[in-house]
Specification:
It is found in: Cytoplasm. The chain is α/β, with parallel strands linked by helices and 216 residues long. Helices cover 42% and strands 17% of the residues. It binds nicotinamide-adenine-dinucleotide. Nicotinamide-adenine-dinucleotide (NAD) binds next to helix 5, strand 4 and helix 7.
Length: 216
């Protein structure tokens, strides 16, 4: 279980380590040094050692890391040893794309239910996932034991829908809307904003990674 004192930046790197360890394991590799791991995941080895130190002794000095035990450890820590059903709220342009993708790369996370107010799509099945009307949301979330949702509704309704989700017992929201929604303690929000990411990239290109002026 991830300790709540673990920094957000460390928690965000865990899936990267987990994914790469899976690739290594499938290719037959048994052991890896922190330097090799650092080169592969593009995270410096001091950061990797610090990240791993939050979980106690995961490797041995001079030996490196045992790939299988590290993989098993992260699998458990990231809850990848069991299937997690998530719900999608708002099946518009972005919602359809996410339904279509449905985390094909992961065996352990899937969208099992989606919700919308548009009666042209409620009652249908899209990409293998049933779309329910919002008035069935609470009942379905409880029945399917869903605690995590992906929020892709228009921003003007995002707070109202979030309040409904929290009342229905949701504990985690992956928020794609531009609104920074408010929730009570105990509910975790992870914001995803492609515009921000793109603006940050463009900022770095223009201010930090400026190519040297040509001397010709
Ligand atoms: N984070 C990102 O990078 C990113 C990228 C694109 C879009 N977005 C955001 O994602 C959201 C969805 O964008 P889109 O282009 O798919 O919009 P869209 O209008 O195509 O889809 C919104 C869907 O939500 C449904 N909806 C409206 N009110 C609802 C309610 N109260 N309850 C449930 N469903 C409701 C609509 O019927 C529609 O199907 C917007 O907030 C948009 O700003 C974020």
């Amino acid at each position: 279980m991830i300790n709540s004192k673990i920094p957000q930046a460390t928690a965000k790197r865990l899936p990267i380590y987990y994914r790469y360890l899976g690739i290594l394991y499938n290719s037959g590799k048994k052991r890896i040094s922190s330097t090799e791991l650092a080169e592969a995941v593009k995270v410096d080895s001091a950061t990797i050692r610090r990240d791993f130190s939050y979980f106690g002794a995961l490797g041995k000095r001079g030996y490196g890391y045992d790939v299988k035990s590290l993989l098993d450890f992260f699998k458990k820590t990231l809850n990848q040893d069991k299937l997690t059903n998530v719900a999608l709220i708002g099946v518009g342009n972005l919602g359809h794309a996410l339904l279509n993708y449905n985390f094909h790369g992961s065996n352990n996370v899937r969208i099992s239910a989606a919700f919308d107010i548009d009666d042209r799509i409620t009652g249908t099945i899209q990409s293998g996932v049933p779309i329910y009307p919002m008035n069935e949301m609470k009942e379905q979330l409880v029945e399917q034991q869903i605690e995590v949702v992906i929020l892709t509704v228009p921003s003007p309704v995002a707070q109202r829908v979030t309040d409904e989700l929290v009342t229905a017992g949701i504990r985690g929201i992956l928020n794609f809307t531009p609104l920074r929604v408010n929730v009570q303690d105990g509910v975790r929000i992870q914001n995803v904003d492609l515009t921000n990411e793109l603006q940050t990239l463009i900022y770095f290109l223009n201010h930090v990674d400026q190519p040297q002026a040509s001397t010709k």
